[in-house]
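sorry to bug you again but im stuck and you know this stuff better than me. what follows is a protein written twice so to speak, once as letters and once as structure tokens for the fold. id like you to explain what the token line says about the fold, in plain words if possible. anything you notice is useful, everything is just below.
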Amino acid sequence: MEAFAAYGHAIVAMAGLAFLTLLLSPLTAVRKTAAGLAPGAQPDASYASPIYRLHRAHGNLTEATGSFALVTVAAILAGASPLWVNWLASLYLVSRVVLAVVHVAGLGRPDMSLRSVVYVFGWVISMVLAVMAIVAAF
């Protein structure tokens, strides 16, 4: 594990993101079950509904986790700058926590608001990590 010691923050960020995803999963299931939804059913698509917002927070996080993990692991394996990989991965985790709070709390409008800005911030971080991995590989 010594080869990856310099990337400790990035590794913790990936674990933290997985933890957040795993935490939101049962919370979402409990809320949907309490609302009488069948397993696998989606709540009505209305951002006025706290259950829908929680459902979307979990879904959005689940959708983004794979690409973040891939680019972060690629950057680590390619030997990209540990300083930058750690900072970017940590910022990504913070952005996803903020995005989950924004989703669940219903802050801003449903479209092109704070939620969109925070999402794009995380997306840009993933893109930078991907470019860093590609550059470091060559």
Remarks:
- The chain has one domain: 2-137.
- The CA atoms of residues 7 and 104 lie 31 Å apart.
